[in-house]
Design goal:
- The complex is a heterodimer of chains A (341) and B (198).
- Chain A is mainly alpha-helical and 341 residues long.
- Chain A has a domain at 128-328: Fumarate Reductase Cytochrome B subunit (Up-down Bundle).
- Chain A is built from 12 helices and 4 strands; from the N terminus they run H-H-H-E-E-H-E-H-H-H-H-H-H-E-H-H.
- A two-stranded antiparallel ribbon of chain A has the order 1-2.
- In chain A, helix 5 runs antiparallel to helix 7 (166-198).
- The radius of gyration of chain A is 31 Å and the shape is elongated.
- Chain B has 198 residues and is an alpha+beta fold.
- Chain B has a single domain (4-191), classed as 2-Layer Sandwich (Alpha-Beta Plaits).
- Chain B contains 7 helices and 6 strands.
- Chain B is globular and about 50 Å long.
- The chains are: A mainly alpha (341), B alpha+beta (198).
- At the A-B interface, helix 1, helix 2, helix 3, strand 1 and strand 2 of A face strand 2, strand 3, helix 2, helix 3 and strand 6 of B.
- The complex binds protoporphyrin IX containing FE and iron/sulfur cluster (2 copies).
- Chain B: InterPro entries: 4Fe4S_Fe-S-bd, 4Fe4S_Fe_S_CS, ET_IronSulfur_Cluster-Binding.
- Chain B: This is Formate dehydrogenase iron-sulfur subunit.
- Chain B: Keywords: 4Fe-4S, Iron, Iron-sulfur, Metal-binding.
- Chain B: Pfam families: Fer4_6 (PF12837).
């Protein structure tokens, strides 16, 4: 690889260039008067590259091999994509993820765990059935692996490579990439099922405006009325469904490189994928917080599927009322209260 | 140390593809991969030029900057090489590269593209110089033998120049002086932020 060959090179190039080399190089710029050969068309590489850079264009030509991408001679905007990937995405991702973590820590220190008012009643009510929970956990677990393997693609070389060395890091990144590619399928399926299961209860309405005005009851005490999902949960729903949908769509463009789109499309897909991914990760950190250490009684909804009556009444008063009415109406009409005989 | 570059004098290139063939043969490049190619712009119109293009071994190389596993390195002669054992085939270098140099052995089902391959400036890879392992993964290492890349050596019209940047630029300038025209050093502004003004 080393090249103790400067003289060899110089000698060969002199041979190649022939006798013209004897002209002193320094006086050349003064002599410069290129003759225009009109029929050939006078074009300038430097000018074309400058124009392509300014316009975000590709200098394309004709090629005699089947790979049509090879006909792109120069695509200067690759440098812009590099700038996005190395600088912009780094900042957006860093601020979104670390910023959200910092906010949650501050919130926890200031507000602590949100307790159930009046404590648990001991009576429970079914909130999510096994199918809803299974789908939620399939989506959630694959999301976490997708997020970690994705963040590793963006930040691993700065954070993990120095810790583990190139061989181990490359091996882990390769495995992460395979996981990222294949787990995208259960993740995308989970998003679709979630959409179908819960869209009915997630249409925004006037209640949500009132709920948001009241700050969701997080600040202060009284709980604004809410149906099966309150405005906060609806926001998580739409972030998941729309964000997850777009992340999946852009991700599938990336998994099948150049199948659906060209160079600029691939770069754009990565930009969309990267930005939405880090924003979703930030939103999901908030979601995970409120579903676990942030609020007493919340985890049960996705754990056992049974939530405490008091929790349900506080956060989903209208939903509880409907459930109670529904439960009553399903009781057989001939049933009599105990001791009626 | 030299600063190795390529310069294609498009006013001499006759699109014979000798450079492409030389590269394929010297490095046993597999079917479907082209480390070097000849692109004709303005085909059949005024301003038609053919340019032989491969990795330009950029200054502050974009491929190296975006690689998630940081598998690129630059030799003392400023040749940009990479370690295939660390490559995960993500394709990022291809998105960042201004010249479409990185190539992949597979088209990519579910992201599996295989290890990236590109022009090594006939300088092999990280393995021991001119070892069997190096040859299988990266091809020839002519630089270690004190020779220039074979594409430029085989160029039938001496359009494609390889060697120290200052030397090949001065050769090109003199040609332009003598014949009175020249479309410039293709890719130099993009790769080296420099152009060969005459
Ligand atoms: C649902 C389907 C998804 C598919 C098909 C998909 C596919 C991909 C692909 C092909 C890449 C390029 C890197 C590589 O080849 O390994 C990538 C990068 C990435 N993905 Fe995904 N992904 C999906 C979901 C997600 C999700 C849910 C997240 C985050 C929560 C995510 C986060 C990322 C990040 C951060 C990157 C790196 C972006 C960059 O550095 O430019 N992906 N994804
Ligand atoms: S031409 Fe492409 S592959 Fe070669 S050094 Fe420049 S960016 Fe990297
Ligand atoms: S394809 Fe390989 S060399 Fe290119 S950026 Fe990805 S890991 Fe790096």
């Amino acid at each position: 690889m080393r090249a103790p060959l400067r003289f060899v090179l110089a000698a060969m190039l002199m041979l190649a260039a022939g006798p013209v080399l004897v002209v002193p190089v320094l006086v050349l710029p003064v002599l410069a008067q290129p003759v225009t050969d009109a029929a050939r068309g006078n074009i300038s590489a430097s000018e074309m590259e400058l124009q392509a850079t300014l316009r975000g264009d590709i200098i394309r030509g004709r090629i005699t091999i089947p790979d049509s991408r090879a006909a792109n001679l120069i695509q200067p905007e690759g440098r812009e994509w590099r700038e996005f990937h190395n600088v912009t995405l780094g900042w957006i991702g860093g601020i979104a993820v670390l910023g959200m973590l910092a906010l949650l820590v501050i919130f926890y220190l200031a507000r602590g765990k949100i307790r159930m008012e009046g404590g648990p009643s001991g009576r429970t009510i079914q909130r999510f059935n096994w199918f809803e929970r299974a789908n939620h956990w399939m989506t959630a677990s694959t999301f976490i692996i997708l997020a970690l393997s994705g963040l590793n693609i963006t930040f691993g070389r700065y954070l993990l490579l120095p810790l583990f060395g190139p061989e181990i890091f490359a091996e882990a990144t390769q495995l992460g990439k395979i996981a990222h590619n294949y787990l995208s399928f259960p993740f995308a399926l989970g998003i679709v099922v979630m959409f179908l299961l819960w869209i009915r209860d997630n249409i925004p309405n006037a209640l949500d405006v009132a709920w948001l005005r009241a700050g969701g009851g997080i600040i202060g005490h009284g709980h604004p009325p809410a149906d099966r999902f309150n405005a906060g949960q609806k926001m998580i729903f739409w972030i998941t469904v729309l964000g997850g949908g777009l992340v999946a769509a852009s991700g599938y463009l990336l998994i099948f490189p150049f199948f659906f789109t060209g160079m600029q499309g691939m770069q754009l897909a990565l930009i969309v994928h990267g930005i939405l991914a880090v924003l979703m990760i930030a939103a999901m950190l908030g979601h995970i917080y409120i579903g676990t250490i942030g609020m007493e009684g919340a985890f049960d909804a996705m754990g056992t599927g049974q939530v405490d009556y008091n929790w349900a009444r506080a956060h989903h008063s209208l939903w509880v009322e409907k459930e109670v009415v529904r439960a009553r109406s399903t009781i057989d009409g001939t049933a009599k209260p105990a001791g009626a005989d | 140390m030299a600063r190795m570059k390529f310069l294609c004098d498009a006013d001499r290139c006759i699109e014979c593809n000798a450079c492409v063939t030389a590269c394929k043969n010297e490095n046993e490049v597999p079917w479907g991969i082209n480390r070097r190619r000849v692109v004709t712009i303005n085909d059949g119109r005024p301003g038609e030029r053919s340019i032989s293009m491969a990795c330009m071994h950029c200054t502050d190389a974009p491929c190296a900057a975006v690689c998630p596993t940081s598998c690129f390195y630059t030799t003392a002669d400023a040749i940009v090489l990479h370690d295939k054992d660390l490559c995960i085939g993500c394709g990022y270098c291809f998105y960042a590269c201004p010249f479409g140099a990185p190539q992949y052995p597979r088209v990519g089902n579910f992201g599996g593209r295989g290890k990236m391959d590109k022009c090594t400036y006939c300088a092999g890879g990280p393995q021991a110089d001119n070892s069997q392992a190096e040859y299988i993964q990266y091809g020839a290492n002519r630089i270690a033998e004190g020779k220039l890349p074979l594409c430029a050596e085989m160029c039938s019209t001496k359009a494609l120049l390889a060697g120290d940047g200052d030397i090949i630029a001065s050769i090109y300038r003199e040609r332009v002086q003598k014949r009175g025209y020249g479309s410039g050093a293709w890719g130099w502004r993009t790769a080296y932020r420099q152009d060969v003004s005459v």
